[in-house]
Structure formats: C-alpha cells, structure tokens
C-alpha cells in the first residue's frame, strides 16, 4: 500500500547498519546431527542465495540424558508419599513431613499418590543426583503457594505413569517463600532444570499466575499435559524443549515462553514433535532468542484471533483518488491513531496486565524463527509469525490468519520449501528482504500481499504497530527463485521499497481494484530472467518488469474496468496459446511475463468465453479456450510491450469507469 511508503520512505543510516549486523546471526537452511540416542545436537546453518543476504551459522543444542528419557521406577526401593484429604503419609527415606507440607531432602525416586485439599511438595536437596517425582494418580491442591516447588536440586523429573491422571491446582493468592523475588509464582515451580516424561496425564489449574516455570531448563519429553493458567502456560528461562507428547494450553498471558536475555545461546524454544494446542490472550510462543520447530502439529490462537486485531484482516478502507500523493492516515497524526494497525509488542513482560500495548502474536522471537516440517495453524490478533531478525520456512504446512502481518521479519524471510498459506492478513508477508526459493505460497491480504518495506515495525521498540520509521535501502529486495506464488491483495500485490528479482517459478497476482495501488509496485529494478508472471489489477499505478529483464513482458490495459471472472486469453497468430486467465476481481490491466513471449511474434487478446482446462487460482492448464471476443492484436517489439493506455481513475472510493466491456472487435 503506497501511502505507508510515502510516510516512511526516508533513509536511516543507523537502521541500515543495525540490519546488516543482525543478518549475521540467523538461519536459512538447517542440518541436524544426532550425536547419540540420548544426546541431540542441533546445528542451524545458513547460506545466502547469490550472496544477497549474509546469514552465517547459528547453533542451538539440547542434550537429552538418560534421566530425561527414563520413565521406569521400582515401587519397593522408592519412597512413597500418600495424600489423604488433609493429611500426608510417608514411607521411606529422604522426606520431612510438617503439617500439610512434605519436604524432599535427598535425591532419589518418590512415588506420589492420593488427594490433598491443601498441601505442598517442596524439594530442597544439595545432592548431586536428580529427584524423580512419580505422579501416580496424584491430586494436589494448595491454596496459598505452589503445590510443587523445587527450591534446590541437581535436577527434577516429573514422571507420568501410563494410564494415570494427575491434577495440580493452586489458589488465587500466594504467600511467597522468597518475598524479595516474589517466588514461587507457578503451580509447578522449579529453580533447577525440570523434565516431564511418561505417557500419563497431567492437568494444571493455575489460578495465581503461571502453570509451569523453570528458572533453568524445561524439557517436555512426553505425556498428555493440559495447562489452564491466569499467567503463562509454561516458561523455561534458559529454554523450553518439547520432544513429544500432547500439550494443551489455555493461558491469559503467553502460552510458551523462554526469557533468558543474558545469554545469546539460551532463551530459545525448541519443538521436535508432538501435538500442541495453545489458546493465549497474549503471544502463543515467545522466545527471547530463537524458535526452532523441527516437526509437530501446532495450533495457536492468540489475542482472540485475527478478528480481534486493531486492523481487521478482512476490512479495507474505501480507496481511490488520483495517485499516490494521498495518505489514508496523515503522517502528522499517525502516532495519535490507535486503530490503524494491531497492538504493538512491548517485549517480554510476564507481569503485564491487559492493555492495548500487549503483544498478541502467534510465534514471536527476537532473533530467528525456523520451521522445518509439520503443520502449523495460527489465528492471531497481531502478527502470526514475527521475528525481529530472520524467519526461515524450510518445509511443512503453515497456515495463518492475522489481524496484522501474516509473516513479518525485520531483516529477512526465507521460504525454501513447504506450503505457506496466509489466509487472512492486513499485510501478508513483510520484511526488508524476502527470498522465495521453492514451495507453494498463497497470500490473501486486505493491504499489500508481499511487501519489502525495509526496517522494523514497532514490535521491538514499543508503540503502535506501523508507527515507526521504515528504512529504504537499495539492497532491499524480493527474490523469487522457484516455487508457486499466488497473491490476492486489496493493496499492492508485490510491493518493494527496493527491487524485485524473479529467476524461476510461477507467480500469479490478483491485485487491487483501487487506482492508488498496483498489482506490482517497486522503487528500484524489476528484473525477470526466468519463470512465469501474470498480474491483474487496476490501471492507475500499474507497473511491469523493467528492461533490465531478459524475458519479455506485455502490459495490457483495457478501456474500462473488466468484471471479475472475465477470462483473458492470449494466443499467438499460429494458434499457440500463451495463457488463459480468469481474474478474481475487477481489473483494468494485465501484466504477463513468460519465456514463451517471443520478440517479433504477433498475439491476439481475447476476453470472455470459456475454457475446458483445469483451473488453479484463475490460471487454466490444458484444455481448450473458446467463444471469446477479440480485443486487440499486438507484436512483441522488445522487453516491454504495452497495449492500450494506462490511465488513472477519478476521485472516489472505487476505480474509474463502470463494470462494462471495452469496445469489441469481432473474431
């Protein structure tokens, strides 16, 4: 959408330097090295295509030792803790019982069963071995503090035996064990590394704040885990690693969070499998550094979904007017307006309350987000996938609906494979650099479809999203090197505050009907050396690939706006069909670039009629076109051949001209 570019288009040397440095820390293509059955080393490496965006190596490593995977236990040699209403009974060594609190003082295995109405388990040991808590049908409620609190241990492991059902519930008010630190603050709280394994179920009802917190590492190896939380669902300061299992989270703050901001090698979220369902009023998954999804079935609803976005993804203001000198939101009032874009991100804040400035993103990371495979479905009020640096989609199926940007990265977005579907968004895919190497990409947006904006929005610096300055850099670009790209936008289809390069692949654009936007919009170059492009849209701001290209383009403009669904056919004089395309919306301009568009060849343009071919996003494959009306003939004279006159519509909320047909020429 060009009015945004008019507001934000100025050069910021500081931001340019920042983005150049930040590109040195993220990933595109990923390799995984399995060191042993119990030790996984994950190495993420990247190589920029054609040297355009430097993205050297980033390493994320998680070790799973034998205590993480061991779910076995021996009843005879283990200490037993049995709850009964308001009493605690113990059998074995390593425990101290005082009223309604049992304190574990030694490493070992403890079998916990029964129901207690108001009681606690505290782990406090200096031993150099893990404490293993077997929740063997335990129902623990504490009305005044964390039901399970690990204050000191080498490591704590919660084991969920097969077939067991376990419940943990806390109260709305806590009496802190550590008043200076306001700790504990979660139903299960650990100051040590915490692992959960087994195939049984664990339900946590956290009425005070978080459901699970580890001040160090948090590993979910397996289990059926349900978290209902007034704060965050689960939080691991150093990292959260989910190996497998079923995780269901309903949180009034973030779903999953890692918040170590002191060590660049920590503060990440790693997901290697399982089924994860998150409903969060704030971010679905938030990482201080990186998010890496190896594979999983993930479903996230954040902030109430896209319909709760400040900018509704399915709303578009009335457009029109003469050209791009018109700002929909005047620049001198942009900061005062709170309804143009979705709420902004104010950073990590586990203690925040419900305000307009809360972040309500699906995935959010300060450094990188990498998706290797699996299925990911996100419905978010704010950006669905957001990184302050780089996003890499290497495979899997990603489907997002967003009240703001579908996929946003400040520095670069790489799509290397898989299916990426932006079902609804204000802007579909947005970054300073966007590189599509392969995959199937579909975008539906109420503003720009794929947008190279250059710079960061407010996600890292606070304030209303969209208010901060965007940098325009000559090196910022959209690169399409393969795959299939389909865009249906009410704003610009492909929009670059920089340049566009297409070397391969198929690109189909159903662009805007308003004349202050275009199906294609760029400030630098548009060089097309391979692939196929068809773009339909309004005529007022229509652009085509430029003469730096090595493939020929044709820009066809009609006398009036053609109705949605009108078939356009281009056939050479010898009867060879170049394309048959049915735009989804009213249009006045068609741009086509194809290796089959040959210099010196004459082509006939038809409209109307029908096609017997199979249709994908309006583009017919195979079959026969018949019954159309001839509009014009043209001969390709060079790299850009124009047919008709590109005009501008008059003022108003819609495109100029009626929904009629151009002057007809008989076959």
TrEMBL record:
The keyword Cytoplasm does not apply. The keyword Transferase does not apply. Residues 1-26 form the signal peptide. It holds the Pfam family Cthe_2159. Residues 47-60, 456-474 have a biased composition (Polar residues). Residues 647-661 have a biased composition (Gly residues). InterPro entries: Cthe_2159 (IPR025584). Residues 43-63, 305-365, 452-474, 644-667 are annotated as: Disordered. Keywords: Signal. This is Carbohydrate-binding domain-containing protein. It comes from Ruminiclostridium hungatei (Clostridium hungatei).
